[in-house]
Amino acid sequence: MATALRPLAIVTGASSGIGRELAKLCLANGFDLIIAADEPDIYIAGDELRAAGARVEALRADLSTIEGVDALCRTASGMGRPVDVLVANAGRGLGHAFLDQDFQEVRKVLDTNVTGTIYLIHEVGRAMRARGKGRILITGSIAGLMPGTFNAVYNGTKAFIDSFAAAIRNELKDSGVSVTCLMPGATETEFFERADLADTKLGQSKKDDPADVAKTGFDAMMRGEASVVHGVGNKVRAAVSAVAPSSVMAEQHRKMTEQPRSK
C-alpha cells in the first residue's frame, strides 16, 4: 500500500528568527518543508528540521532576484506534490538616513521585501488558485503603519506588503485560498544587527520572542484570518498610528532609530 504524502510547505527567510520558528511549526503540524534563505545557515536549519523526521529541502537562494525565486519554484516542482502552505517571510532592513545609504543596499531591501516576495506569491498562488486550495502567510509589520524615520525604505516596503496582503486576500475570496498577514513589532532576531540598528534605542529595547510571534502568525493562518498583530503593546502602537498625525509618528520613530552621535 502506498504511503500518503505529507502536505508541503515553503518557508522563506527560514535560516533564523521568525522564519525558522515558522518552519518548526509547519513541521510539528505534519508538513514536509522547503526552506530557503540567502545564507549558509539555511543548511544548518535544514539539518535540524530533518532530524525530526520530515522531508526537508534546504535551498540557499537570493530571493531578491527573479532567478532565486525561480530556483525555489523548481525545487517545489521537484517534490512531486502541490504546495499547500506558502510562508513568505524573507525580509531585509536598512538603518540610517535615506540619503546616506548606498543605493545598491536600498535596492536590495526593495527587491527582497517587495519584488521577490510578490513574484513568489504570484507563482505559487496561481497554482493554489487553480487547485482551489492553499494557505499563504505573509510577514508584514506594524512598521508599515508608520513613517520609518532612519528606516524609511523598510517601513515603506512593509506598508506595501500590509496593503498588498489585504488586497489579494479579497481578490481570492471564495477561491479556497486564504491570505494572512502577520504584523509583528520589534522581535529578538538578527534583523537589527543586519540593518545596522543595534546601537539605537529600538535595537537595544526589549523585544518579542520569535517563537511566540511565529505561533501567533501560524495559528492565524490556520484559522484563515486576514491579519494579526502580535502582542498587546504592538496592538496599542498600531491603534495609535491609525489616529496620530504622520508627523508625530515620524518624530517618535526618529527617537527610536536615530544613531547616537559620536562623542
UniProtKB/TrEMBL annotation:
UniProt keyword annotations, A-Z: Oxidoreductase
Stored PROSITE patterns: ADH_SHORT
Cell wall biogenesis/degradation recorded as keyword: no
InterPro entries: NAD(P)-bd_dom_sf, Sc_DH/Rdtase_CS, SDR_fam
Name of a matching Pfam family: adh_short
TM region(s), chain numbering: none
Record-stated family: Belongs to the short-chain dehydrogenases/reductases (SDR) family.
PANTHER family: DEHYDROGENASE/REDUCTASE SDR FAMILY MEMBER 7B, SHORT-CHAIN DEHYDROGENASE-RELATED
Name of the protein this chain belongs to: SDR family NAD(P)-dependent oxidoreductase
Species this chain originates from: Pendulispora brunnea
Taxonomic placement: Bacteria, Pseudomonadati, Myxococcota, Myxococcia, Myxococcales
